[in-house]
Amino acid sequence: ALERTLEGVHVAISAGGTREPLDPVRFIGNRSSGKQGYALARVAAQRGARVTLVAGNTADLATPAGVDLIRVGSAVELKDAMHKVAADADVIVMAAAVADFRPTSLTGHKIKKTSADPDPITLTKNPDILVELVSARREGQLIVGFAAETGDDTTSVLDYGRAKLRRKGCDLLVVNAVGAGLAFEQENNAGWLLSADGSETPIPHGSKAQLASVVWDAVTARSTEPQ
Ligand code: C5P
């Protein structure tokens, strides 16, 4: 039987990619499918949680049974929705691919083609929603972030993940090794689950539902720990 280990727990999950508008018909976006966030929502609901899923742009995914879905477009809309939902959430998982930048100005009308070269697009930094949620954290609230990393000659995926966990200040960070058939637009995922208390759990290559199970197991273990 499925253990309803998240009964009575309200979880807020962000999923998918943000779209940063340039004009009424154009945007800057990314390739996030939302599959990992949806898998997190589905598994949490199966374990008895009340789930609010805040979704940006995603592939054509069915809303998991029993999940409340809020649709957003841009990073700023996602930020507003997450702050609202966070006020009442016990656990927050930021699985969305939030654009780091947005076009500085949003033209009210469609940008016209002219014979001259177009003006360059200037960009403005988006807020870091995860960092904001950590600063606004309520007593007892658990916050989980995601990091898609590639290693390089000097630093491993894991080291980048450790640094990001410290910088963001969240309780748990899922580090995804990206590239080579992993993560974005893929059915499978692999990586590590890093905890602010220093524990590091390797996540074997497997389905996004399996990764979700690792995350919810860790959340449950933390909330049942003696305080
Ligand atoms: O800094 P980086 O984008 O790698 O961090 C990834 C984590 O931070 C993810 O959990 C993502 O949802 C979150 N994030 C955010 N706001 C941003 C950028 C990323 O909440 N502007």
Word description of this protein:
Its cofactor is Mg(2+); FMN. It catalyses: N-[(R)-4-phosphopantothenoyl]-L-cysteine + H(+) = (R)-4'-phosphopantetheine + CO2; (R)-4'-phosphopantothenate + L-cysteine + CTP = N-[(R)-4-phosphopantothenoyl]-L-cysteine + CMP + diphosphate + H(+). Keywords: Decarboxylase, Flavoprotein, FMN, Ligase, Lyase, Magnesium, Metal-binding, Multifunctional enzyme. Its EC number is 4.1.1.36, 6.3.2.5. Pathway: Cofactor biosynthesis; coenzyme A biosynthesis; CoA from (R)-pantothenate: step 2/5; Cofactor biosynthesis; coenzyme A biosynthesis; CoA from (R)-pantothenate: step 3/5. This protein has 227 residues and is α/β, with parallel strands linked by helices. The chain has a single domain (10-100, 121-224), classed as CoaB-like (Rossmann fold, 3-Layer(aba) Sandwich). 26% of the residues lie in helices and 28% in strands. It contains five helices and twelve strands. The chain has helices at 35-46, 75-86, 129-135, 157-168, 208-223; strands at 10-15, 20-23, 26-28, 50-55, 67-71, 91-94, 101-103, 123-125, 142-149, 172-177, 188-195, 200-207. The strands form three sheets. It has an eight-stranded mixed β-sheet with strand order 5-4-1-6-9-10-11-12, with helices on both faces. Helix 1 packs across helix 5. The longest helix has 16 residues, at 208-223. The radius of gyration is 18 Å and the shape is globular. The two termini are 29 Å apart. The relative contact order is 0.16. The model has no long low-confidence stretch (mean pLDDT 93).
